[in-house]
Every structure is written in structure tokens, then in C-alpha cells.
Amino acid sequence: MATPPNRPAGLPAWNIPTAEARARFLAALKPDSHGLVAAIAQAHGTGEVLMLAWMNAEAVEETLATGRVTYYSRSRKGLWRKGETSGQVQHLIDLRLDCDGDALLAIVHQDGVACHTGRRSCFSWGLREDSVAPLEPVLADPATLYGKPG
């Protein structure tokens, strides 16, 4: 096993599993008819739920092989390396499979914010006084993160 480069200091080591171990993990997946499994990102140390995204076998393989979380973007129809545009990278601490094999829990160290709205978590909205309202502040300007005007 090897440790990936560019891992922030102070994080638990991510020992890259062997190709054989990665293949066994992939064989345990039970993807849907589109080849996808739901993937929940949870903050290491706090348990905060950061986001829900999708992974296909290629995204799982890359995540396990690099220690950097990669998803499958349904809108772009391709791999989405979390943080490649915004710099808000997710470093893998652990990747867990649920009992049915159709969902993953990625325990991550989140650099910056997880949500494209600039909030820490994508789960930052709720029903308040008969309307849906933000529950968390914007911590990073999305226009700055993604290089687009607001």
C-alpha cells in the first residue's frame, strides 16, 4: 500500500488499497440500472453530513486509488473530481459500503465548503415559519469558487 501525494498534514494516512482489494470492493457494489450508487459524504471528526452525490465503478476505483473523492456527474455524464474547479477538495478517510451494497458512505476531510452555494453542507435548508429558508450562512462566494459571475 502507498500513501497518495498532496495529502494535508495531520490527516490520518490513506493507504491505497491493492488492485485486488479495490476489485473486491467494486465486486461488492450493487449499482442501479444506470450503474450508479448513492454516495453520502460525511465530515471526519464531526459526523456532519456534507452532501449526497453519485458514484459509478470508475469513480469508486479512482477514489480508492487516489484518496481524493471522485463522483459521477449525471448532468455532465462523466467523472467529477470534487474540488477540481473550486479547490474545495474532499480527502478520503474511509469508504464504507452499506449492507445492501447500493450506497456508500465517504468519510472525508473537506477543504473549505462542500456545497456549490458556498455553504459548508448541501443540507443547509429547512422549513422555517412556513417557508424554505437557509439554515447556514454562505461561507464562500460561489462566483469566486467557480469563476462565474453571481
Automatic annotation (TrEMBL):
> How is the cofactor bound, as the UniProt entry phrases it?
Binds 1 Mg(2+) ion per subunit.
Its quaternary structure?
A: Homodimer.
Alphabetized GO MF terms: phosphoribosyl-AMP cyclohydrolase activity
Needed co-factor(s)? Mg(2+); Zn(2+)
Instruction: Give the protein's recorded name.
Output: Phosphoribosyl-AMP cyclohydrolase
User: Where is Mg(2+) annotated to bind?
Assistant: D98, D100, D102
| Domain called Phosphoribosyl-AMP cyclohydrolase: residue spans | 51-123
Its UniProt entry gives the catalysed reaction(s) as: 1-(5-phospho-beta-D-ribosyl)-5'-AMP + H2O = 1-(5-phospho-beta-D-ribosyl)-5-[(5-phospho-beta-D-ribosylamino)methylideneamino]imidazole-4-carboxamide
Family matches, as Pfam families: PRA-CH (PF01502)
According to its UniProt entry, what is the function of this protein?
A: Catalyzes the hydrolysis of the adenine ring of phosphoribosyl-AMP.
UniProt pathway: Amino-acid biosynthesis; L-histidine biosynthesis; L-histidine from 5-phospho-alpha-D-ribose 1-diphosphate: step 3/9
Where Zn(2+) is bound, by residue?
A: C99, C115, C122
Q: Which SUPFAM superfamilies match?
A: HisI-like
Q: What class of enzyme is it?
A: hydrolase
InterPro entries per record = PRA-CH, PRib_AMP_CycHydrolase_dom, PRib_AMP_CycHydrolase_sf
Gene name of the record: hisI
Transmembrane domains' residue ranges: none
* Cell location: Cytoplasm
- Native species: Pararoseomonas baculiformis
